Records
---
Amino acid sequence: MIDGSVPRTALVTGCSGDIGAAVCRRIDDAGYTVVGWDVVPPRADLPLSSYQPVDLTAAEVPETALHDLAAAGALQYVVHVVGGSDVEELRQTDLARVPAGVFERTVALNLFSAHTVIRATVDLLRATDGDRSYTLTSSTNAFGGYGAPGYSAAKAGLHGLVAALAGPLARDRIRINAVALGTTRTANYVRLGRLMGRETDFDSIGSRTPRGSVLSPDEAAAALTAVAIANPALSGEVVVADAGQHLARR
């Protein structure tokens, strides 16, 4: 059992991106100590108790990062935001012939990374009492092909991972869920567009959704944190949070 004076901690992977940063702020507002992992340093104004440079596509998490996480307090929630499209995959014209290296890199970033963070942190969650959870960031692309088969397959793989681990983790009273987000207005989305030689028109993309706009990073973060910390009965589920975008795509 964890002493009540020990800080309750949440780990946010991908803390340096727009969605990850918004998740950090929301979890901090909820009163938890926040630890961030990412391959690039976060912005200076993020409410992090600590940050560690961690590449979750590698086979192991550095011991320094795990020691730092354990020292921050009782780990209660892990929100895994790491992921994203690969520009080389998006450039492919023959989607049945995506190069093996590109496919592997995309799966590593979006699926293997989730397995790595779970394997590295599960004993810390087991050592904590009360509600605990993993929340994985998926995409509506998991439900259909939209020009990136590796990305879609990896996100769908997260759903299989959730289904496979929900029962075993429940024996330790640990929840696991995924949130399938729709298109979100992020700097990384704009960056990918520019690498492909075009400017992203979020207004045009949003106009094709039922509500007429894409998600903001804070809306995406609201969905992730609600599943992570506000729904103790929710486990083994994929929650679609895309403002109805999947309805328009169908």
Note: The CA atoms of residues 160 and 236 lie 10 Å apart.
---
Amino acid sequence: MSLESLTKDLTAYFNQEDYANCHELLPKIKIELIKNNLLVPTSDTKINPNDLMITRSLLEIGALTSINLLKPLEFSNYITQVKSFYELNDILPISKNQNKLISLYLLLLLTQDNLALFHIELEKFKNFGLNVDDLETDEYLSIPIKFEKWIIDGNFNKVYDILSSKHKYPCKEFNLFEKDLLDSIRFTISTNIESSYDSLPIENLKLLLFLKNSNDINEYIEKMNWLVENNVVHFNKSLTNTNAMVDDDDEILEAKDERIIIKNVIGYGKEMENIV
């Protein structure tokens, strides 16, 4: 099949949200793009800008297909490819999907607790013809930026309030990250609690981890290999000390960042103790 025919079929499937068939067609389309020297943008002035826009659109469909099929690695690969086209802002108009896709990628990085790469990606917006100072007002980008700020500040309850409410996101794909982001936040809170407390009443811990019922907290306690006696959870400190050794400078930086988060978690924990 020709690239034109494949593109037509892919677009039809994508508009029907038939992501399985989209996924079947995408490798064939990539092969055709390679044959036509279009998969990777070059400085070749003979390439028609319209062809580059079509390729960019196909890669965007690939990214959205991958994330809807819950294939984060494929999604990341498509984002890496399409960003090369986003940097061609001198010859191509800005894509209407650009901020949405980058926002989804930033959310993925948050679920992976990769804050370093998160900030690197934000810095790259200057290459996309965007004003970094205006990112917080964008309907898509404002969401991961706010989440990241709250996570850094230790304001996990703000993130939870948004994720647990019937929040209307600017695109349906944002909902795909809710569970993973909550799991990431719970793990961050858990590791900081282990560093700050020897034990906590189980009800306090349930509130701190935003767990709604006894089954959820019991499953989480088992997953973390904590011990429970008389409704008090005891944290196994040795589990947190099995990481590989790092350089002293890295330890100092990590400790500094951790103290900031622990301070917020402890404060929030004390509030929960008072309530209980």
Note: Residues 237-263, 268-276 have pLDDT under 50 and may be disordered.
---
Amino acid sequence: MGAAALLAMVPGNAHAASPKFSETTAIGTHNAYDKAKYAYFAQALDSGASLLELDVYVDSISHRWRVSHSNPLGNDNNCEAAKTPGELYGKSRNQDLGSCLDNMAAWNQLHPDHPPIVVKVEMKVGFNDKAGLGPDEFDTLVAQRLGGSVYKPADLLGGTYGTLDEAAKANAWPARDALKGKFVFDLIPGTVEQSNPFDSYWTDEEYGDHLRDLKAAGNISAAQAFPVVLGAANGDPRTSRYDASIRPWFVFFDGDAATYVDNGYDTSFYSANHYILITTDAHNVSPAISSTSPTDAEVAARLALLAKNHASLITSDWSAKSASVLSSVTTRS
């Protein structure tokens, strides 16, 4: 029996030491807010997936955090106007980010011992700090809606380490069992932001600066998310992208699975330093499998393959798969 099946079968690893968050590989769902994937975001949470993705636009005109794939001024998503467990699975949808967070909080009351869920937030056009939609306001919104249900950068530091890089290299990540009931937010630059010739200060750098400054001010506990280095690279991509002052604040990395694997990149760098590596479009790794409806065996094989290539999370559009498949967790090499 494979490791993925073993970890999925033994609730909470009851008879074995729970592996650390950095020592496992799990499955996530791309654009989990899409109504074509799940009628309600609560169903995405029910799916068993270990990562769910939200696309967020800052709407500077109405001062709102919009959740949509392509409409920066409106909401188009499966998040509903539900703040309590009894309101889930039936309220009006197409709500803003605050409602998505409310749904998560309500669902968390129903499932207080759920495995950790990474919430990958793509900031489509980046932050707009001048309009009051910057990192501080993002932190405040998440903290107000989810409170102690968030595993934060300060939790990794634990009052012991000076930077996230120091903590990760010491493998200060908690055991998966210790993260029951927790959400872990990561932030990536958005596609619109990256193509904007007038914007060179992207989400990753802006939030990295934010973490550095919060730590210097003695207020790192306010931060609710981890910034992500986006794009598959061979070696440490932080060196060429960021000022030395913020490089140590990046311990999450995100890139195309096929680029890493099919090009033979040395991904051992990530597991050796206990960094979290998210590999996207997992279906495209050679030999390619379906992006929507692979067999259970194909998903298990792809999970095992990418675990051997040091991924922490693999993502695709496999929302139609059962919870027993999407909740699979295996040992990371």
Note: The domain at 24-331 is CATH 3.20.20.190 (TIM Barrel).
---
Amino acid sequence: MSIESQLKAQFAENRDIVQALLDDGSEPDAEYTIEHHFSSSNFERLEKAAVDAFKLGFEVNDAEEMELEDGSVIFCFDAVAYHKLEIPLLDKATEQLLQLAAKQKVDYDGWGTYFVGDEIDDEEDDEDDEQDDGFPH
């Protein structure tokens, strides 16, 4: 899939995720922790992507190793930002990060965040309420 096609699909998903959160009663003016997901079977490529994400101003967490159902291993990390659920900010970040992923030949797996509101008080519910792209992370 071309970068343009990926961007178009991601921009639509950005709107869907934000709308789902707001429809569920998440706070529209809160600051959110936005976790952009990256993965690759090549650790060195993933490491270069992490450095590039850091240079773009994202907080980068440590890479983790994950075994998939078929027994293969991938490495993954999140590039984290903190801001409101504003579509222009999300679109800009996803465009930058999709281009970074293409450059480093790693996968950009979308982003996720957590519901912010008065109703959620315990950590178990927080984990269940992450809005994400459907990929296991």
Note: Residues 120-124 have pLDDT under 50 and may be disordered.
